[in-house]
Structure formats: C-alpha cells, structure tokens
C-alpha cells in the first residue's frame, strides 16, 4: 500500500515512486510500506492547501460547523480505536495500553477544540466615540505546515490539526518518517467525514526533503513544529525569509526537585520515588517533558536514590504485545546509539552509573529483546551542573542525579538549563512548594506530581524549549489572525490638510 500521500483529496504515491519500509522498533518486523515524498509532492500539497484556503468553502464555513466536524472526529477515533491503537503500537513499540491512553487524550483534544471553535468570535473595542464601531475579529492564518515527531505521533499531530481546523485554516501535515500510520488513519477519518478537498493534506518522508518546503515556501503562512532543538533552529531560520508565523515545541531537560520532607516517611518515599520512576522511564524516556534531571536534597539522597535504583532494576522491558511488558524499545538503532553515547560521556565526565548503561538484550522476562532497540533504565548519580549529561537532552531512559543544600540552590540548579519546558517540586510543606514553583522558569510546573497535562491548559516552553503554546485558548490563538475592523459610522471632513480652494 504505497498510495499514502493525501493531496487535494486524493490518495497518491510519491511523484518519484519512492517508498519506505516502516519497521516495529521492538522486533524489526515489517509494519508497512508507505510513500516517500520529495519536495515536489510537498509543493503539490502546499498548492492544494493554498487553493482550498483562497477559493474553497472551508474558511467561510461557520465556526460551529467546523467545531462539529472536530467533535465527529473524536467520535470516529473512539469508534475505530482498536485500529488506531494497533497502528500507534506497531510504529512506536509502546504498549497498546499506552497507545490507548494516547487515543483518549487525542479524542479529548478534538473535543476541546471542537467546543472552543465557536466560543470566541472576537470582541468589541471601545473607541471612545458613539460614531465608531470598533471590533476585533479572528480570521484563520491561512495555509499551515504542521511537522511532528515520532514519540507521540498522533497526539502531537492532534494538538496542531484540531486548532488549525477549528480556526478555519488549511494544512499540510508532515509526520515523522518513522511513525506515519496513525497520521494516515486520521486523514482517512477527515476524508470520510467530508472535509472539503485540499483542506487537509498529508506528506510522508524525511524532514530535509518532504518537510523542508513547509518552512521555506512563500505560500505557507504558518509553520508549527514539534521536535528537536537543532531542527527547530533550521525551521525558524528557513521561515524567516518569508516572515511566516512560527510555533516551536522543542526539547526539554526537566528538573524533578525533591525536598527531604517529600520522602521522610515510608508512604512519602514510596510516592515520590514511584513518580520519579515514571517521570524518567515512561515510554523509555522518549518524552519531551521527561523528568530526566533529578534534583534531590542532600540529606535524602542516599535513601531516595537507593530506592530509585531498586525500582529501576525491576522495570520489565519487552515487546508491546507481550504480557508483563512495562516499557518498550527506543525508536531506532541510531537513537539507541545516541542515548548510549550520552551515558558513556557521563561516565567519562566522572558520573556514576548506578544501574543500566547498556543495551537491553537477551530474555528480559517477556521474550527476547535481541531484535529490538532496547536500552536499560539508567540512573546516573554524582552528576554536576558542569557536566554535559545534565544539560543535553538524551531522550532515552536515563536520569541524572544532582543534590542541593537549600532552597536557593534547588532553584538555581532547576533553572540552570537552556530549556524550560517542564519541572516539578516535591515537598510536604505547601508554602515551600509554592515558593519554589513560583520561581521555576518552565512552561509547566507540577507540585507533588509529574506529568499530567490537560487540553484546557497551555503547553509549551520557556527559553529554548520553544516559541508559542499548544492547547488551551492560546493553542487556538496560534492559528488565528486578530483583525481590527474600525468602522466610522459618521464619516466627515477631518480638516487635517487645509483645502485652499481652486478648481475641482
Ligand atoms: P526531529 O527534530 O528530528 O524531527 C521532528 C520532525 O521534523 C520530523 O517529522 C522530521 O522529519 C522533521 N524534520 C527534520 N528536519 C527537518 C527540516 N529540515 N525541515 C522540516 N522538517 C524537518 O525530532 P524527533 O527526533 O522526531 O523528536 C524528538 C524531539 O522532539 C525531542 O527533542 C523532543 O523533546 C521533542 N518533542 C517536543 C515536544 C514538546 O511538546 N515540546 C513534544 C514531543 C517531542
């Protein structure tokens, strides 16, 4: 099946005829063969999106009707959930249970923006005169280029597709080349629901070929990108020539700050360690907001880290459909090598690898890991702020451990990052927890928790974690142009320039 590009309402092969094999990272099995687009395909998709925006019916469709379509998308995801879950699981290697949770969040994202679409039609501005009607109306930005990563393939796409459609835009989606299948499925849903041709377009393929035109092309009005910092820089640079709007959701190196009073009883220790484990090792650490930087009060270091290591060693790696699997593989061989190089660098810098630090191979409780890209949960103790391992994003199952003596040092360490996506503080002293939370320079701060996000709440980063916000009302605002309409109800002579007579 290589007719997997969706351009102007038609399923097509790549113009060059090129294809790509998609393989499950857990065992290398063939998941599918999809079209591999090149720049010509993306340019065709941009042209379709441009024509659909400029001349098609979509942007004139009422906001309530657009919202209604999004609500129906949510229902379709629920109806076809098994198919979506299986596709996401095979592409990423994550457990079906996790893919299923993603689908719930994705459906809820479509519901949220479906309801928000018609909520805010603009506002009246007091121009200071009864003879003036001044108002702000929201219009769609135009053609949107949407570029997404492989870790949460459909979730990241949904955060862009839903608000883009709610606002009346047309778009070209370029998902990560390794995980295309749920993007194909969502386009089938949009097609089945009767979205006008050219409104939603899909190109699949490598970033530098299929993705690049979306940031450089003059007919694209906005590029919204989720992925790594290095790619984000390239995209922002290429977008600059046409001064298009840019939204960037980039990486993170997220501190999880634990005070001793969050682990001074058996119950508190169990809760804070358990959450630190999830923060670091959920989806094998391939999470932009992973708590990959543990920052613990000195006096609690030994008992906390001993317990973290004990728990990390029990995590059961495995293939997604095997019973007992708790987390899956890394996305690719190249990515696993990158994670391992990061750990080796930490070792060379003098950090102590308390557990892990090696590929997951052999029989690990649920079958052989040898054909997949597994990496052992890794605890890197004795890390210091000068080390690369505490600043660089590994995007794998690794957590560095640093210690602090007091509140000021905790805040200084937690904010010592070029990123600023997310962070957490754990303390049983509510006043202290709030004090620290107020000082953290991160887009999301959790207090005595790690990880939850809500479609109603903005998501995005301070610093080099990005530009703009997804989700929440700001997530819709990214896809709207506010327009000021100033209407003079009693036009007359202004006398600014003097009429000195003469012939008319
Ligand atoms: P990546 O930057 O390698 O790729 C992301 C997407 O960009 C892919 O679709 C890729 O094909 C495309 N791309 C690559 N080069 C391109 C170019 N020159 N022009 C246009 N498109 C191009 O990132 P990844 O490895 O897929 O994802 C991991 C990264 O994503 C991590 O850094 C992670 O922190 C980040 N991420 C951030 C968030 C967030 O919400 N902030 C969420 C998920 C992932």
Write the layout of secondary structure elements.
Elements: E1 5-7, E2 10-12, E3 19-23, E4 30-35, H1 39-55, H2 63-79, H3 81-92, H4 96-116, E5 122-125, E6 132-140, E7 143-147, H5 153-166, E8 170-174, H6 181-192, E9 200-202, H7 207-216, E10 222-226, H8 229-240, E11 245-249, E12 255-258, H9 266-281, E13 293-297, H10 301-312, H11 333-348, E14 352-355, E15 378-381, E16 398-404, H12 407-415, E17 422-426, H13 430-439, E18 444-447, E19 466-467, H14 472-477, E20 480-488
Parallel strand pairs: 7-8, 7-10, 8-9, 10-11, 12-13, 12-17, 13-16, 15-16, 17-18
Antiparallel strand pairs: 1-2, 3-4, 5-6, 6-20, 11-19, 14-15
Helix pairs in contact: 1-7, 2-4, 3-4, 4-5, 7-8, 9-10
Notable characteristics:
single chain; 504 residues; alpha/beta; Aldehyde Dehydrogenase, Chain A, domain 1; Aldehyde Dehydrogenase, Chain A, domain 2; 2 domains; seven-stranded mixed sheet; six-stranded mixed sheet; binds nicotinamide-adenine-dinucleotide
Give a brief description.
With 504 residues, the protein is of the alpha/beta class. 37% of the residues lie in helices and 19% in strands. Strand 12 (255-258), helix 9 (266-281) and strand 13 (293-297) form a beta-alpha-beta unit.
List the strand order in the largest sheet. Answer: 14-15-16-13-12-17-18
CATH class of the largest domain: Alpha Beta
Shape: globular
Supply Rg.
Answer: 25 Å
Alpha-carbon distance between the termini? 72 Å
Domain Aldehyde dehydrogenase: 11-485
Active site: 249
Protein name: Betaine aldehyde dehydrogenase
Pathway: Amine and polyamine biosynthesis; betaine biosynthesis via choline pathway; betaine from betaine aldehyde: step 1/1
């Amino acid at each position: 099946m290589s007719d997997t590009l969706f351009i102007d309402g038609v399923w097509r092969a790549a113009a060059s005829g090129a294809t790509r094999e998609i393989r499950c990272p857990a065992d290398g099995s063939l998941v599918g063969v999809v079209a591999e687009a090149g720049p010509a395909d993306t340019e065709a998709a941009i042209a379709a999106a441009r024509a659909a925006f400029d001349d098609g019916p979509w942007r004139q469709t009422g906001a309530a009707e657009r919202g209604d379509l999004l609500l129906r998308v949510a229902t379709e995801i629920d109806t076809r959930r098994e198919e979506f879950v299986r596709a996401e699981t095979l592409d990423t290697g994550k457990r079906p249970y996790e893919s299923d949770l993603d689908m719930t969040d994705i459906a809820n994202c479509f519901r949220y923006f479906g309801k928000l679409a018609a909520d805010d039609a603009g506002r009246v501005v007091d121009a200071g005169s009864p003879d003036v009607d001044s108002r702000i109306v929201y219009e769609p930005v135009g053609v949107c280029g949407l570029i997404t990563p492989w870790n949460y393939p459909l979730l990241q796409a949904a955060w862009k597709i839903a608000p883009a459609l709610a606002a009346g835009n047309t778009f070209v989606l370029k998902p990560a080349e390794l995980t295309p299948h749920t993007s194909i499925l969502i386009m089938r849903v949009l097609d089945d629901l009767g979205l006008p041709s050219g409104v939603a377009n899909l190109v699949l393929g490598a970033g530098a070929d299929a993705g690049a035109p979306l940031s450089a092309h003059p007919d694209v009005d906005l590029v919204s990108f989720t992925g790594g910092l290095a790619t984000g820089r390239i995209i922002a640079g290429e977008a600059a020539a046409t001064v298009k709007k840019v939204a960037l959701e980039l990486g993170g190196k997220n501190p999880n700050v634990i005070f001793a009073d969050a682990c001074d009883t058996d119950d508190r220790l169990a809760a804070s360690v358990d959450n630190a484990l999830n923060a670091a090792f959920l989806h094998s650490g391939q999470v932009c907001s992973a708590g990959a930087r543990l920052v613990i009060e000195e006096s609690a270091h030994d008992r906390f880290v001993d317990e973290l290591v004990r728990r990390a060693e029990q995590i059961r790696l495995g293939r997604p459909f095997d019973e007992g699997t708790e987390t899956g593989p890394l996305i690719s061989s190249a990515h696993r090598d990158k994670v391992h190089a990061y750990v080796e660098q930490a070792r060379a810098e003098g950090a102590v690898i308390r557990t892990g630090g090696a590929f997951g191979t052999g029989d690990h409780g649920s079958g052989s890991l040898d054909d997949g890209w597994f990496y052992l949960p890794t605890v890197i103790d004795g890390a210091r702020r000068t080390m690369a391992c505490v600043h660089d994003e590994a995007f794998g199952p690794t957590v560095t451990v640093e210690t602090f003596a007091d509140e000021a040092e905790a805040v200084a360490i937690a904010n010592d990052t070029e990123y600023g996506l997310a962070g957490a503080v754990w303390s049983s002293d509510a006043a202290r927890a709030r004090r620290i939370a107020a000082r953290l320079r991160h887009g999301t701060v959790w207090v005595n928790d790690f990880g939850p996000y809500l479609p109603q709440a903005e998501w995005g980063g301070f610093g080099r974690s990005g530009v703009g916000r997804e989700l929440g009302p700001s997530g819709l605002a990214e896809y709207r142009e506010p327009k000021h309409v100033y209407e003079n109800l009693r036009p007359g002579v202004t006398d600014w320039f003097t009429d000195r007579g003469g012939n008319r």
